[in-house]
From TrEMBL:
This is DNA-N1-methyladenine dioxygenase. Substrate binds at residues 62-64, 82-84, 134. GO terms for biological process: DNA alkylation repair. Residues 112-209 form the Fe2OG dioxygenase domain. It comes from Shewanella loihica (strain ATCC BAA-1088 / PV-4).
């Protein structure tokens, strides 16, 4: 399939006025494809997620331990366990529709992945703090595909050197591809939104070096 989306340069940016400023303002290497999944595909994944083995593990930061402000599960191929923010997550076997979406991403964009992190946000009080997906087990050169289902939420990107911030609205069915090497110079976050009362699911497909944690 031809890529139907558009690069970031097409969706407007705070530095569109002055040529000089435009040249200096960093832009995240992303592609946003609104409505990538149709209603039936979205519904199949949302229904399937009702049976996912979600958990809410605790993270220790500055000596204090708190459960993460969302629920999550990691599905992956054999040997594709994931370690992030000090949390070791063993890969669960792939459910049918999460696997189909992995195959669709590979067919449509050549986007290779062997694991997906699914986050479930109950409403706008559940969040994801600033971070980069830059774990050592991620295959260098690989892109990360992020698919949104359910409630629309604002998603922020922040350039670590210049502090340039970019806000995107992610709606149900949208696909955001974060291209290599975005994670080395940009962070991303999903802030609280008091007015959001509906749940949201997010699936980020990643390509890991298999058996990285067994060597
Ligand atoms: O829910 C989102 O859109 C963000 C998820 C995310 O940042 C991640 O999985 O690393």
């Amino acid at each position: 399939m031809q890529q139907q989306g558009f690069g970031f340069e097409d969706i407007g940016h705070e530095a569109k006025d002055e040529g000089a400023a435009q040249q200096q303002t960093p832009r995240p290497p992303i592609t946003l494809i609104p409505g990538y999944l149709n209603q039936a595909q979205q519904g199949a994944l949302i229904d399937e997620a009702e049976h996912y083995p979600f958990s809410r593990p605790a993270l220790t930061l500055f000596g204090r331990t708190h459960p993460i402000p969302r629920r999550q599960v990691w599905f992956g191929d054999d040997g594709c366990d994931y370690l992030y923010s000090g949390l070791f997550i063993r890969a669960e076997p792939w459910p049918k529709y999460a696997l189909r979406l992995r195959q669709k991403l590979q067919r449509d964009f050549g986007l290779v992945s062997n694991g997906v992190l699914v986050n479930h946000y109950r409403d706008g009080s559940d969040t994801m703090g600033w971070h980069s997906d830059d774990e050592a087990e991620i295959v260098p050169g690989s892109d990360i595909a992020s698919v949104t289902l359910g409630a629309s939420r604002s998603f922020f990107l922040r350039h670590t050197q210049s502090n340039t911030k970019v806000e995107l609205m992610l709606n149900s069915g949208d696909l955001l591809i974060m291209h290599w090497p975005m994670q080395s110079s940009w962070q991303h976050a999903l802030p609280k939104r008091a007015k959001v009362t509906q749940p949201r699911l997010n699936l980020t497909y990643r390509h890991l070096i298999p058996h990285f944690h067994q060597g």
